[in-house]
Design a protein that fits this description.
With 532 residues, this protein is α+β, with helices and mostly antiparallel strands. The strands form 3 sheets. It has an 8-stranded mixed β-barrel with strand order 1-2-4-5-6-7-8-9, surrounded by 5 helices. The longest helix is centred in the C-terminal third of the chain and has 24 residues. The chain is elongated, with a radius of gyration of 35 Å. It binds ligand C2E and calcium ion (2 copies). One calcium ion (CA) binds next to strand 6 and strand 7.
């Protein structure tokens, strides 16, 4: 292992003596077997120190501020190689070069880079530039400007080391990359692990909706490659196919390979441009993040019940509560949280939203398990709208409201109502409930059906006196009964004429008190006197 000092002292001499060489690591389309290109990776074989790993000397050179010199050196070798391929009419595949943070802030770096390319007369379409996510976040404006310059010149820009989780998605919406490179080492242990696998697949599928091709790197096993393929990522770089190769060996490999190109993997028939949801300038994004309530973007694959959340906004995270993070919500898997009946309803609502192209609503129960709150049942009202369609899946915009509290209160009422109903049927009675604090009266089904009462009567008994159900000459009597109840009478029984025909009813009230002895509610019943 060489230290910083040794690297610093040897660098200039090493450049002069051409101790650096370029290795090329092939990239493949796992589905077709075609070679789609290579990444240029620098190697330093020093007569003094032997082989030095880029992981050791790159950070040191970055710190010294000399990386642009090395990267332009690498770039020139790449251009030379591409020129020789063109001249000898050999198979041609594009090459990606690395651009570090220092290169971005180096003022004339891109001009110098492009001057080299012109010197060798290599078309820009044969060159991709890789920029790491971390480089991209630092000093966003200078990054945005650099990428714009590269785009204007015709280069393709790849986001390197994408997949260090969620920050990546936020970078994505700010910076216009053309290709994503997903490094499996940043999603370590994820394949075969449900949550990681879901996040990985949601990232891949989101990239597809953005029409961005994804290359997975650091792929070492067939299992990894097959998993990636299953979630829709075909482009692969890693030891599974090949280590980085010296140029001559790569040349041989290239000669014997079928060469393919990268294409965005999804052909979209856009209804609404889904990409707008990640573009910071778009009205849609502004709305998604600021103005709407809790919202999510959901992808549903055709032909099966697979539905996955690709993105949620901060308000969604808050609405769900339970200390869940954005990544956890995505990892939970929507389908798994829905009970079978809710799932059926949810899928039907999606179907309807797709068919009508209009917003559709449903209420579903979900079992959510969070680290801090354990298991909880939650009722969610969702308004669903179709925003994109492809041959294999559909994209929906979903606004949600957690209505658990309202729903539970309502269910409590419905239960009471059910009890009322049973009692009425048995006893041939009219029943109602009177809330003392609010003077609200809730009649039973029979009252509603036979007497035509609404489910809720405010300022009881006045409206019934007004409409004549309680005959006017007895109005004060009704008022007096209610007055006694408001004042805390425990029980009241009376024979009272009701309806316009003044039919006598046997009316009973039983009052319920709270723990402090204050009257809360009174339960009323009425039976026909003639019946008895
Ligand atoms: P990187 O750009 O993320 O490059 C990928 C690294 O993963 C390479 O390491 C490559 O050899 C390694 N790799 C490829 N396939 C596999 C695999 O299946 N499993 C594992 N475990 N590793 C795999 P390398 O060549 O040591 O380069 C390390 C880093 O140094 C690069 O990471 C890049 O950030 C930097 N680098 C390399 N060449 C250059 C260059 O010319 N310029 C600049 N600025 N940075 C460079
Ligand atoms: Ca790279
Ligand atoms: Ca990488």
């Amino acid at each position: 292992m060489v230290d910083f000092q040794q690297i610093a002292q040897s660098f200039e001499e090493a450049i002069e003596n051409r101790e650096f060489s370029v290795y090329l690591q092939p990239q493949y389309n796992h589905s077709s077997g075609a070679l789609i290109g290579a990444e240029a990776l620098v190697r330093w074989i020093s007569p003094k120190h032997g082989f030095i790993s880029p992981a050791d000397f790159i950070p040191a050179l970055e710190e010294m501020g000399v990386i642009p010199t090395l990267d332009l050196y690498v770039f020139e070798q790449v251009c030379q190689f591409l020129r020789s391929c063109i001249d000898s009419n050999k198979a041609l595949a594009r090459i990606s070069v690395n651009m570090s943070r220092n290169d971005i802030i180096c003022e004339d770096y891109i001009e110098r880079l492009d001057a080299l390319r012109k010197k060798y007369d290599v078309p820009t379409k044969l060159i991709h530039v890789e920029l790491t996510e971390t480089a991209a976040v630092a000093g966003a404006q200078v990054v945005i400007d650099s990428i714009k310059k590269l785009h204007q010149l015709g280069y393709t820009v790849e986001m390197d080391d994408f997949g260090s989780g969620y920050s990546s998605l936020n970078v994505l919406k700010d910076i216009e990359f053309d290709v994503l490179k997903l490094d499996l080492k940043f999603i370590a242990g994820t394949i075969g692990n449900d949550r990681g696998g879901t996040i990985l697949s949601s990232v891949v599928r989101m990239a597809k909706w953005l029409k961005l091709p994804v290359i997975a790197e650091g792929v070492e096993t067939v299992e990894q490659a097959d998993f990636l393929k299953s979630v829709g990522c075909d482009y692969i770089q890693g030891y599974l196919y090949s280590k980085p190769l010296p140029v001559v060996e790569y040349e041989k490999l290239l000669a014997g390979s079928s060469v393919g190109v990268m294409v965005p993997q999804m052909n979209l028939d856009h209804y609404v441009d889904a990409g707008k949801f990640w573009n910071p300038q778009s009205m849609e994004t502004l709305i998604f993040s600021n103005f709407v309530g809790a919202a999510a973007i959901l992808e549903v694959r055709n032909g099966d019940d697979t539905m996955e959340i690709l993105r949620v906004n901060q308000k969604y995270v808050r609405e769900m509560g339970m200390n869940l993070s954005e990544a956890e919500i995505i990892g939970l898997g929507l389908a798994d949280t829905l009970d079978p009946e809710s799932k059926k309803l949810y899928l039907e609502t999606l179907e309807k939203a797709a068919a009508t192209r209009e917003e559709q609503e449903c209420e579903t129960w979900r079992s959510i398990c969070s680290k801090t709150c354990g298991n909880e049942k939650m009722c969610v009202r969702s308004s669903i709208q179709l925003i994109g369609e492809s041959k294999v899946s559909r994209l929906f915009y979903v606004m949600v409201r957690n209505v658990t509290a309202e729903k539970q209160a309502y269910l409590g009422l419905a239960r009471q109502e059910k009890n009322f109903k049973a009692a009425i049927e048995q006893a041939n009675m009219f029943l109602w409930e009177y809330t003392i604090a609010t003077k609200e009266m809730r009649p039973c089904f029979r009252c509603q059906g036979v007497l035509g009462l609404p489910p809720l009567i405010r300022n009881y008994p006045e409206p019934l006196i007004e409409n004549g159900l309680f005959p006017a000459e007895y109005a004060d009597m009704y008022r007096d009964i209610m007055h006694q109840i408001d004042g805390g009478a425990e029980r009241i029984e009376a024979i009272i004429p009701l309806t316009a025909d003044r039919i006598p009813f046997h009316v009973r009230y039983t009052t319920e008190f709270d723990e402090n002895g204050r009257p809360v509610k009174a339960y009323g019943s009425a039976t026909l006197v003639v019946d008895k």
